[in-house]
């Protein structure tokens, strides 16, 4: 496991070769005729992107034969043989942590680069906001996520709100308590006597909705304060700082039998209220599926993964391999308006597969966003892919 991970972190092909002597090109792992290859090398010409909620897991329980399906993408020795990643709009914890959790639940080795969450594209905004005060909103560890990406001055909404007395007039009626975090490295700890940033003087330069907000009322109130005032709650109106959402899912399938309101629902609530109380309409950017950017990014990650895993034993054309395209990338999802719409919009080489284990339960294909294939479970989807790619 450690060696596998070190390969994915290796900065050069040579380093990668040293790190993983066990890893062999796929052609050596499978009989030649069983696998479709492209013209330039010995690697599978396809990759797979799995949605998580409603496809792989419901809550924390594996569904649809997902552990078996994933195991078939590894050799008997547990070496990855098909490049795949998880492409989820969810999040709230750093990718490394999510990878460990998925490895445990699904009983296969999953590395951090194989986990692309809704907020993963936020790291691309690092050069803009690296040393600026930013606020991170949502369940889990939103500030820790942003700190891991390299942002230096990040406060969670819990911590930020705690600097302003009476900013939430309803807080006295809330019986829950903000989790006390003793870890000194965490940015989510409540107010300390010597605040790291002077929230009363430093303007918030951007707000990031990292994961589903927990306290909608407080968060909408404080975000309206930040956004209307130009970054200083309680002050005169100013220019709206940039606002970023990790995704825009209206609903998603969790443990409860019917769908739950997602980040898109929170966005609508915030936007509706903000536009009623502010002269200029809310400006924002949403990432996550079905944004085609997310699919292009996933393709780049899969290429990198493939060259890390399969390139190290090939002494030539490593660069060429990194750049060469996949013939097919399969998107396996449960939500037609997110997973299937996104894969369709991304176009070639994406091929969409819709499962019936989550949001979609229809007998036939979805009418508005029909998938290239509809199956009952993720296990059926992977069986289909491996059969199709071996002919
Ligand atoms: Mg889903």
From TrEMBL:
One of its GO terms (cellular component) is mitochondrion. InterPro entries: CDP-alcohol_PTase-I, HAD-like_sf, HAD-SF_hydro_IIA, HAD-SF_hydro_IIA_CECR5, HAD_sf. GO terms for biological process: glycerophospholipid biosynthetic process. It comes from the Eukaryota. Pfam families: Hydrolase_6 (PF13344), Hydrolase_like (PF13242). This is Hydrolase family protein / HAD-superfamily protein. It comes from Colocasia esculenta (Wild taro).
């Amino acid at each position: 496991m450690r060696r596998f991970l070190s390969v994915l972190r290796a900065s050069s092909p040579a380093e990668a070769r040293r790190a993983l002597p066990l890893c062999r090109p796929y052609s050596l792992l499978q009989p030649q005729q069983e696998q479709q290859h492209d013209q330039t090398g010995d690697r599978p010409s396809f990759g797979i992107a799995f949605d998580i909620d409603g496809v792989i897991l419901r809550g924390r329980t594996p569904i649809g034969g997902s552990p078996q399906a994933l195991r078939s993408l590894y050799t008997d020795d547990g070496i990855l043989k098909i490049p795949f990643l998880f492409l989820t709009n969810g999040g709230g914890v750093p990718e490394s942590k999510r990878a460990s959790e998925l490895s445990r639940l699904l009983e296969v080795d999953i590395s951090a680069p194989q986990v692309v969450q809704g907020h993963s594209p936020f790291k691309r905004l690092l050069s803009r906001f690296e040393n600026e005060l930013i606020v991170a909103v949502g369940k889990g560890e939103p500030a820790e996520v942003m700190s891991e990406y390299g942002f230096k001055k990040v406060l969670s909404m819990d911590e930020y709100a705690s600097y302003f007395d009476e900013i939430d007039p309803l807080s006295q009626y809330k019986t829950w308590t903000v989790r006390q975090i003793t870890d000194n490295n965490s940015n989510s700890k409540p107010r300390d006597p010597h605040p790291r940033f002077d929230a009363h003087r430093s303007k918030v330069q951007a707000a990031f909705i990292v994961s589903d907000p927990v306290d909608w009322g407080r968060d909408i109130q404080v975000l309206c304060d930040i956004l209307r005032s130009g970054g200083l709650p309680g002050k005169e109106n100013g220019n709206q700082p940039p606002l970023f959402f990790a995704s825009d899912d209206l609903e998603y399938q969790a443990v409860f039998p019917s769908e739950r309101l997602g980040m898109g629902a929170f966005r609508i609530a915030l936007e509706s209220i903000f536009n009623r109380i502010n002269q200029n309409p809310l400006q924002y950017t949403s990432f996550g599926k079905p944004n085609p950017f997310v699919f292009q990014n996933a393709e780049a990650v899969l290429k990198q993964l493939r060259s890390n895993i399969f390139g190290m034993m090939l002494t030539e054309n490593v660069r060429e391999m990194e750049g060469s395209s996949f013939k097919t990338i399969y998107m396996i999802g449960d939500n037609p308006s997110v997973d299937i719409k996104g894969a369709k919009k991304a176009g070639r080489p994406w091929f969409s597969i819709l499962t019936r284990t989550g949001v979609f339960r229809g007998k036939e294909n979805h009418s508005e966003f029909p998938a290239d294939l509809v199956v009952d479970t993720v296990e059926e989807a992977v069986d289909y892919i491996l059969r199709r790619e071996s002919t």
